[in-house]
Amino acid sequence: MASPVASSIVWLRDDLRLDDNPALSHAVELGLPLTVVYILDEESPGIRPLGGAARWWLHHSLTALAGALAEAGSALILRRGPASRVIRDLAAETGAKHLLWNRRYGGPERSLDADIKAWAAENGIEAASFQANLLFEPWTITTGSGGPYKVFTPYWRACTASGEPRPPVDAPATLPSPAAAGSKNPAGSDTLAEWSLLPVLPDWSGGLAATWEPGEAGAHNRLEDFLDGPAQEYGTGRDIPGVEGTSRLSPHLRFGEISPFRVWHELRRHFPREATPDVGIFRSELGWREFCWQLLYANPRLATRNYRPDFDRFEWQQPTAAELGAWQQGRTGYPLVDAGMRQLWQTGWMHNRVRMAAASFLVKNLLADWRLGEAWFWDTLVDADAASNPANWQWVAGSGADASPYFRIFNPVTQSKKFDAEGRYLREFIPEIAHMDRRAIHEPWKEPDVQGYPAPVVGLRESRERALATYQKLRADEPGREAPGGPEISG
User: Fold this and answer.
1) Nearest-angstrom CA–CA distance, 405 and 399
2) Co-location of 278 and 323 in the same domain
C-alpha cells in the first residue's frame, strides 16, 4: 500500500460554519488535501454531554454544514468516541501533517486540546489553534493585578478599550479536495442517523422545527432580520416578551454557525459610529456572553460549584416533586413563569426577561438549589452553553460573579403587568386563560371562572419572606458581619 499523501485535518467543534472560520481559512492557505471532521465526544473526562434540545439542533446544524462543505468541494467526516483516539486514528488514515482547530475555553476541553497538541508535536504533526468564537480571549483581558474580572462593567470597559475586534474573513469559495486514506479511499464517516440525536417516542421537536432554521444560512438570515428591524429599538424591545424585540442569535452563536466578529462588524456596517444607543446595548449583551466565558475559563466547575464559596453554607430547600414538576411543566399558577416554561418546552428558547423571572421563582420563591434549574435549562434550551447557562443561573441565585443582590426577588405578577401589559405573551402560551381581559390575566386565581389552570403553588409574600430570611441568615453567619435589613424589592 502506498504511503498516505500529506494532508491537513480541520477539527470542527463549536464553529459549524465556513464564514470567518480561521482554522478552515488556514487549511485553504496550506493547499493540502483536507479532512474536515466533527467528533461527537461524550466519553472524554469532564466533557458534558449535550442536552436533548441541543442534540436536536446539532443534528440539523451538521446536516446544513455537510451540504455547505459539499458545495465548496469538500466533505464532512463524522466520528464518534473519545476525541484523542479519533484524532490519532484519523491522522494515521489520512497522513495528516497539519491539525487545525479553533480554540475552546472550558477546563476539560482545554486539557484535551493540550494533550492532543503535545501528541501531535511528538509525532511530527503541526497543530495550530485559532481565535474564532470569542471577541476577547480570557487571558487577554485582566485586571491591574493580572487576575480575571469579577464585575461586568469594568470588564466590558477594558474590552472595548483594548481595540476594535478583527474584521471577519469571508468563507472560501472552494476548499481543497478531501484527503484519502492510503491514497486510495476517503476516510470513513458515521451517519447522523447512527448518532440518534433526534427525539423519538415521543418526538417533541415539532415546535423547535417550526421556530428555528439551524445552520449557517439560518444564522445569517436571523442576523439580517435583526439588523433590519429589532436592532433599532433593542433597548426597549428586548424587555417585551410579546414582540420580536431580540436577536435570537444565541443558538447560532452557541454552535458557532456565525462568528461574533461577523455580528460585531455587521452592526458597525448597518449603524456607523453607534448611530443609536440601542446598538451599544446589544453590543453589551455580546459582552456579557464574553464575560461568562471568562468566568468559566477561571472557574471550570462553574456548573457544579458556587462561584462565591460562602454560598456553600446556603440553606437551599429541596422542592417537592409536585413543586419542581409544576415549575418544569409551566403549571406554577403564575402566568409569566408558566408562559416562559411552556415557551421553553415548545421552542427550546425563552425570552431573557422571562428567564430571569422563571429562574428567580425557582431559586427564591421555591428556594431550590440553582443547579436544579441549570440542569433543566441545559436539557431544554437550544442555546445552552457551558458558560452562559451556569453563570446566569448563579447570577440570579446570588452565588455568582456580579450577582443579582440577594434581596432582588422578581415578582412575576409585577413583571408581567409591566412588560406584557396586554397579556399578549401570556395568551400565546397559556390557552387556559387566553379569554381573560388585560387586567385579570395576570392574576387568574382571583377570578371565579378559571378552569384548567392551577392555583399558585406558593404564595408570593410568604415565599419571598422565607427567601429573604434565608439569605439574611447566610449574611449574618459571615464572620464579623451583621445581617442588614435590606429593601424587599420585587422587580
Assistant:
1) 9
2) no
Domain stop point among 79, 106, 132? 132
Q: What is the pLDDT of residues 149-165, one digit of tens each?
A: 999 999 999 999 999 99
Regarding whether 274 and 402 lie in a shared domain, the answer is: no
479 falls in which pLDDT band (50, 70, 90)? low
CA distance linking residue 376 with residue 473, whole number of Å: 28
Task: Give the pLDDT of residue 180.
Answer: 64
450 pLDDT tier (thresholds 50, 70, 90): confident
Higher pLDDT, 477 or 386: 386
CATH of the domain at 86: 3.40.50.620
Mean pLDDT across 316-341: 97
Rounded Cα distance between 249 and 335, Å, is: 26
How many other C-beta atoms are found inside a 10 Å radius of the C-beta of residue 196? Answer: 10
Residue type, 69: L
Closest CA to 231 of 288, 287, 262, 270: 270
Q: Report the C-alpha gap between 330 and 339 in whole angstroms.
A: 7
Q: Give how far Cα 121 sits from Cα of 108, 114, 115, Å.
A: 20, 11, 10
**Lowest-confidence pick of 126-140, 172-186, 338-352:** 172-186
CATH number at residue 231: 1.25.40.80
Question: Quick one: which of 133, 138, 128 has its CA closest to 13?
Answer: 133
Last residue of a domain, one of 272, 298, 324: 298
**Domain housing 254:** 134-166+216-298
Catalytic residues: 285, 288, 316, 352, 370, 393
The SS3 assignment for 226 reads helix
**What is the mean pLDDT of the segment spanning 443-447?**
95
Into how many domains does the chain fold?
A: 3
N-terminal to C-terminal alpha carbon distance within the chain? 71
Residue-wise pLDDT for 397-420, tens only, equals 999 998 877 888 999 999 999 999
- Claim to verify: residue 87 and residue 236 sit in the same structural domain: no
Examine the domain organization and report whether 108 and 144 are in the same domain: no
